[in-house]
UniProtKB/TrEMBL annotation, chains A, B:
Residue stretches making up the Acyl-CoA oxidase/dehydrogenase middle domain: 162-271
Keywords recorded for this protein, A-Z: FAD, Flavoprotein, Oxidoreductase
Flavoprotein found in the keyword field: yes
Classification lineage: Bacteria, Pseudomonadati, Pseudomonadota, Alphaproteobacteria, Hyphomicrobiales
InterPro entries: Acyl-CoA_dh-like_C_dom, Acyl-CoA_Oxase/DH_mid-dom, Acyl-CoA_Oxase/DH_mid-dom_sf, AcylCo_DH-like_C, AcylCo_DH/oxidase_C, AcylCoA_DH/ox_N, AcylCoA_DH/ox_N_sf, AcylCoA_DH/oxidase_NM_dom_sf
Domain Acyl-CoA dehydrogenase/oxidase C-terminal: 282-449
Acyl-CoA dehydrogenase/oxidase N-terminal domain sequence ranges: 80-158
Sequence similarity: Belongs to the acyl-CoA dehydrogenase family.
Residues that span the membrane, as ranges: none
Organism per entry: Bosea eneae
Name the record gives this protein: Acyl-CoA dehydrogenase C-terminal domain-containing protein
Amino acid sequence: MASYTPPVADIAFLLEEVFDFDDLMQALPGYEDVNAELAVSVLDEGGKFCAGVLEPLNRPGDEEGCRLENGLVSTPKGIAEAYKAFVEAGWAGLSGDPEYGGQGLPRAVQILLDEMLSSANLSFGLFPGLTRGAAEAIAHHASPELKATYLPKMISGEWTGAMALTEASAGTDLGLLTTKAEPVGDGSYRIKGTKIFISSGDQDFGGNIVHLILARLPDAPKGVKGISLFLAPKFLLREDGSLGARNGMSVGALEHKMGIHAQPTCVMNYDGAIGWLVGEPGRGLNAMFTMMNAERLFVGIQGLGIAEAATQKATGYARERLQGRSPDGSRGPVAIIEHPDVRKMLLTGRSISDACRALAIWTAMQMDISARHPDAAVRREADELVALLTPVVKAAFTDFGFETAVTSQQVFGGHGYIREWGMEQFVRDARITQIYEGTNGVQAMDLVSRKLPMADGAVASRFFSIIRHDLQAAAQTPAARAIAEASEQALGRLERTTQSLLAARDEPTAAGAAATDYLRLFALVSCGWMWARMAEKAAVGDTPLHRRKLAAARFFAERVLPQAIGLEAALANGPGSLMELEADLF
Amino acid sequence: MASYTPPVADIAFLLEEVFDFDDLMQALPGYEDVNAELAVSVLDEGGKFCAGVLEPLNRPGDEEGCRLENGLVSTPKGIAEAYKAFVEAGWAGLSGDPEYGGQGLPRAVQILLDEMLSSANLSFGLFPGLTRGAAEAIAHHASPELKATYLPKMISGEWTGAMALTEASAGTDLGLLTTKAEPVGDGSYRIKGTKIFISSGDQDFGGNIVHLILARLPDAPKGVKGISLFLAPKFLLREDGSLGARNGMSVGALEHKMGIHAQPTCVMNYDGAIGWLVGEPGRGLNAMFTMMNAERLFVGIQGLGIAEAATQKATGYARERLQGRSPDGSRGPVAIIEHPDVRKMLLTGRSISDACRALAIWTAMQMDISARHPDAAVRREADELVALLTPVVKAAFTDFGFETAVTSQQVFGGHGYIREWGMEQFVRDARITQIYEGTNGVQAMDLVSRKLPMADGAVASRFFSIIRHDLQAAAQTPAARAIAEASEQALGRLERTTQSLLAARDEPTAAGAAATDYLRLFALVSCGWMWARMAEKAAVGDTPLHRRKLAAARFFAERVLPQAIGLEAALANGPGSLMELEADLF
């Protein structure tokens, strides 16, 4: 059976041919030494680690799962050793701030490592991913002392991080949370409460675990304005910075989950854990969103990673499995990749994965611009585009990732349902990405009710103008004309729908009723845009890779993008059909 | 948490108000005593058994799974007792031939029991479902001696049945199978080979297990023409009909599966098992298809069962879970059923489940007509419609069932990913229905390459005429006009696409490239037709049920049916984009 091959050639095509990566890096202070050649070479090494060390642990880790015995969490065989090797090789600090020992590579490189981690072992990838998110929140909001104490070891990966938000009755609605933080008097707090669904809440890698916990100060107002953010380590630190006594927290249980079995998702009891405020009192949600936004992009990338890995395995199987006769009946048994419907399944996965990777890089480049560009106006514009695209990347990539896992499993027929082949694990693992870090429904609401109205719709308009400009340029290349024109038509549908939504801002149910379908329409247009850009460059070359890109672009234009027509029509019907029925009649 | 409520009121609405069930039964010799009142009363009792006995075993059975120890299969705690109670209550023989002790109720009643079985416990439902399929193949093709020996105990449910088709290298392509049958000389055969994925291949209920096995006679030609069907019981029978020695078969392993863990899916080794020919030599596939067609409808019903159960649980949760503020911001926390996007998820499931149930009943009524109507021409026409609809019911209902399970799981947010809530089990269980009894891709190929061309397209045309007639009638009722008109537009799309496909019959890849999208378009139109018929009748009443039907019909027309526009557009692009890329460039 085909094993995972890191898509380094596809990455090189994107960085070297499609995007002006080298020019961009030149324009960003601190990244002058970064270029596509360096990035590809780093990612080639990273890919070897993912394919060689992490992927072989993926299925055994799913079978074995995590255990909680006598209050101690054990991860499956090999995971702790792999994590140590990952840290020793320096992968944890790839994009970390050099001030704290990181290697300072741009986000556009980080997300490509994240993709490969997610392809190889989604459960594993959450450990460094959550640590990075927690470190970002600390870097942006914590005191200099907390930063100096915690960031170096988090950025090296020696210590891991966890985000403790959700409670049994407070999920999407964090305003309902009840965990308390009482001031001790020496600047620290005692935190009491129970959190659920805490990824990486504990591990057996050694080192410390830095918990960022949302809790309420005494007399805090109800709702989200009463929420503050606290940092509490698993082990309190001695004066010399070494690990001291256990802090007042324990793992109440491991959640019994559909998938990501090698990831210890914990019920965490904070029983008077000592912690320190991160950011200002009552501004916890704000600080947490620094982490959440980075995590949401990371979760989107997880969807891409699963889509890529599942498509690869299905393609390998379809080349080897002999069943049935060729379409013209002349030969048989033939490899099932000769059957049109199997090709349709494979091309669906391929056309989704490649487009999502391109859009992920484009978005990450905007993050790099927003962080480093010398011109404040350019930084702000990039930051707005990232804000606009964050819910789209999170929700659409994970929906596509799950759908691609399901389709790829289908290529295997009955064997796809059997655990040994690994395809059903992709489906179970991918499913969480649509749910955590804000369900995809919450992402869609974020897009329509907070992001679209930014600057009265001007941010979305600017994004659509960028797309139209690129599509009109791509249409000048004959081999890219069809995908460019199909995408421009779809863009028109998106723009008309956007205008209707903005015009209906006063109708309280209009946004919510449109949200999910609108986000999908937005994502399809964005993927079509990326295909037009890829086709434009692929038309220049004639390698197998270039031909594959052109074929996938055509497939996307002809067989995937037409969904946009139905979505526009459904959205034009408005919220009425959702709202008329009384709740007790459902 | 809400438990499963058998949809008896919805069934009564369909049988009593939407379909002329009583009139039809009057016209079918042998069913004169059957009417809607009787059917509803029987199904009300059956539903109590499903909800009271089988549903409570569903999650424990998933957790415990089946075991194979010392060659003996154990089903999870309670399953064997439940099976015995099921048989004792007479449910196994509900639609069985009275000549062999069955109760002789029509198929239209049987499938509604099957739906409730599937809602309550999919793993359990396979035991009686496969037994019935095997009994039908025996009834149609076996010798009078085999029928007399095996049918009474299979129809009572005392003995169960299994279908042994698939081998490791022969799945969709049964022509590749290698299991052998050697004549002993006394009319019996010795069967040697290994079969995989054998549902109900063994159990611990006591009684016998009747295996129907596809195998090759010596010197049989290669391919499907060399395949014959054999009956081999787990226990050979003594002269007096009691169970004697073990036959030469054993369970090699239990498959490790994504779901249906309470169902022992076996690797079966036939080591010289004594068996008897069913039907003529070389006509095994023909005999097996008698079983397969019945099973395919049953599998479609399984998809419906999961959709109904998952929608019910999601609806119950959405009424109870408090999160977030009302759309106008005035109240909070509110039950999440107030959020438009949650309503969209619930209505998607509801509009799919109700339409599929209606279409299932309509199809089953055609089966009853084809079996019993006094006029041979009427029987033949009904049989053709069943042949046309079989792949649609199998594939579309199971795709809808899986999608509805996923959407309903999403309503639960993070809790949906946790095993205790039972929603992820629906997803894992539903997934097999898209794969077994011919993958949904195979169903789609059956529709476009065998069923559409029947009588040069005349069967499909006749079906479309029936739909148009009903839609035009429904459009006379104001409350049904919108769904009727939307469905008629979608019907136009289906008819145009059908014409294009029939015109392209000489292009070898046209059918395969269209198959999956075409089947979905076909199913959406069929569901729209059913909604128009339901809305027409719902408009007459003003009960909560009638209002729910009208609201779901509107939702289906406005938010689901528009998919048909995109499907027509995608299909109009033809097979080119699927076929241009060489297999080694994927």
